[in-house]
Prior knowledge:
This protein is of the alpha+beta class. The chain folds into two domains: 21-89, no CATH class; 107-221, M1 Pyruvate Kinase, Domain 3. Helix content is 14%, strand content 29%. It has a six-stranded mixed sheet with strand order 8-7-11-10-9-13. It has a three-stranded antiparallel sheet with strand order 2-1-12, with no helix packed on it. A two-stranded antiparallel sheet has the order 3-6. A hairpin with a 4-residue loop joins strand 4 (48-51) and strand 5. It starts with 7 loop residues before the first strand and ends with a strand.
Amino acid sequence: MGGERLERAPLGAAGVEGDRIWGLLDGSTGRIASPGREKHFIEVPRGHARFTGDGVAVSSDGARWAAPDDPRMLRELAGVFGFNPVLKPFGPFGAEGFRPRYEHAPIHVITTAGMRSLERDHPGSVIEERRFRPNLVVDWPDEAEAMPEQGWIGREIRIGEVVLRGSRPCGRCGFITIEQEGIPLDIEILRTVVKRYERNFGIYCDVVVPGEIRAGDRVSLS
């Protein structure tokens, strides 16, 4: 579902507080939503979710919010998604049972330099961070490499009081092609990422030193 932009975000070993603590399933089949892989779930990004400090709230329109088990809101989301949704809390990372689809890295980072490179490689497309669903967007100058963050793998990335370590490239699926609010369908963008960047765009990171990240924090590498 569509996420939210934060001005400050506490980070722990598992990532941003409140991130990936609930899952969305099709109530009739029990399948967890995967919009980038199954057309059945392609409308899921039209819904909205946000962290409330002690849980998650969801919305069908981004204006009215309710708890994940609110019957009226679930009916409204069903009208948006085209199936009857069930929202369910995940167990702890590594636990048996209902587990997140993305357990391989707690943090996903992209740079503005990488987005500008993709704009040059794929002119006419709407290149916006919501296509790529990062935890962090780093404002970074253009370098000789089209995607500077690829050079951060294995390095420590200090952002304010937080230290991350780049772990691996972020491989892309069909999610980056689908339509979202204000972002049109773009089938060709995935082909461009495959051809130009070997399917990778952005990087995954581990949390070395937890803390709080704030918009505008200085970023440095070591």
